[in-house]
Amino acid sequence: MAWLQLRINTTSEYADAIGDMLSANGSQAVTYVDAKDTPMYEPKPGEVLLWPDTQVVGLFKADADMKRIIARLAKAKILGPDFKYKLEPLEDKDWEREWMDNFHPMQFGERLWICPSWRDVPDPNAVNVMLDPGLAFGTGTHPTTALCLRWLDGIDMTDKTVVDFGCGSGILALAALKLGAKRVIGIDIDPQALQATQENARRNGVEDRLDVFLPENQPTLEADVVVANILSGPLLELREVITGYCKSDGLLVLSGILAEQVETIESAYAKDISLDPSAIDGEWARVSGRKH
């Protein structure tokens, strides 16, 4: 079946109401996307956040009377007769298959490869992490993850204890284990992320060295290495928690940071961490160092 996609730019104040109007006019699905590439902090449990500039996207059947629907929308006060929109056809595809076909094995640093579980590994002698992201974030394609993977590849992980704070799909936890870590503790607010991490650990034969926890159940410990690939907001808000996991002389790496946010993050962590030079990949950055 072919589809039509109606895009309307608005603000977070009106996004929900416009979404409801699209649904009332026959939209089969409504999604909300960032209209201006604005970073979004990790929401707290049960909290729904929208970007200040939000694009509301309605999905309609190809035979929908869009001229009539748009005329009805134009009568709403929050839109008005001259509201701006974009209407475009959406090709009917197997989107999951499309994504899988375009997720290829990737190398990070000298030794480490991240390989989709449905593809053959390019180098059987490399350190290969077999990954099925499932419902959780983390494939290695995003610069924030790539920055952390390259950092891990450059560290001697032998017999290290590691905390992966905000583990997502478990990609960083698995990389640490495959690179020689003795034990990894994965922590995430999303139970589906913990499930994905455990499933990926089983796929890689390292489940016996991995433990996962929700924040309310997280253990008290001090690790040799702490990785936190989240966003600058939570990194600042949870600074004491994150640094508390790192033992004296332990290593800490932080990502999910925009390049212009590096100075703020470094200022917040400098009292606990002897900082290395930050690393930049496009608009994203990595901050790392050793705990005093």
TrEMBL record:
What name does this protein carry?
Ribosomal protein L11 methyltransferase
Summarizing the function annotation, the protein's role is: Methylates ribosomal protein L11.
Primary location class: cytoplasm
Localization, per the record, is:
Cytoplasm
- Keywords in alphabetical order, please: Cytoplasm, Methyltransferase, Ribonucleoprotein, Ribosomal protein, S-adenosyl-L-methionine, Transferase
The EC number(s) given in the record are 2.1.1.-
GO biological process per UniProt: methylation
Q: Name one Pfam family in it.
A: PrmA
The similarity annotation says:
Belongs to the methyltransferase superfamily. PrmA family.
> What SUPFAM superfamilies does this protein map onto?
S-adenosyl-L-methionine-dependent methyltransferases
- NCBIfam families the UniProt entry points to: prmA (TIGR00406)
Catalyzed chemical reaction(s): L-lysyl-[protein] + 3 S-adenosyl-L-methionine = N(6),N(6),N(6)-trimethyl-L-lysyl-[protein] + 3 S-adenosyl-L-homocysteine + 3 H(+)
List the GO terms this entry assigns under cellular component, sorted alphabetically.
cytosol; ribosome
Gene designation: prmA
- Has UniProt tagged this entry with the keyword rRNA processing? no
UniProt organism field: Alteromonas hispanica
GO MF, any single term: protein-lysine N-methyltransferase activity
Amino acids binding S-adenosyl-L-methionine:
T145, G166, D188, N229
HAMAP family registered for this protein in UniProt: Methyltr_PrmA
